[in-house]
Amino acid sequence: MSMWTVYDLDVWGNAEDGFEVNDWRPIAKFDDNGKDDIITFLYNKELITTDDQEKFVVEESGECNIEIYKAKDGEPLFSLEKLP
User: Fold this and answer.
1) Is the pLDDT of residue 17 over 70?
2) Which of 21, 76, 80, 82 has the most crowded CB, counting CB atoms within 10 A?
3) 38 near 51, Cβ under 8 Å?
4) Using CA atoms, how far apart are residues 70 and 62, in angstroms rounded to an integer?
């Protein structure tokens, strides 16, 4: 089990021109038992409106980070950072 900090992202842009993360802020801590728990956690905390796993891309970015995107257009939604 790992402890993560969840960051809300301030995103600029669109699917056609691309997205850029302008700022981020920590909004929650999360204990996971695997990648599949992340969307359920965000849904239960009412940070997203559906728990349909097919609507999101959960991508590992190195050992200490996970990025979550909308599957439809690639818009970044959240970032998770593993705590030491």
Assistant:
1) yes
2) 80
3) no
4) 20
pLDDT (tens digit per residue) in 30-75: 887 666 688 888 999 999 999 898 999 989 887 779 999 999 999 9
Q: What gap in Å lies between CA 71 and CA 75, rounded to an integer?
A: 8
Q: How far apart are CA 31 and CA 37, in angstroms?
A: 9
SS3 readout for 19-63: EEEEEEEEEEEEEECCCCHHHHHHHHCCCCCCCCHHHEEEEECCC
Paired residues of 78 in beta bridges: 8, 68
Domain housing 21: 2-82
Q: How many separate domains does the chain show?
A: 1
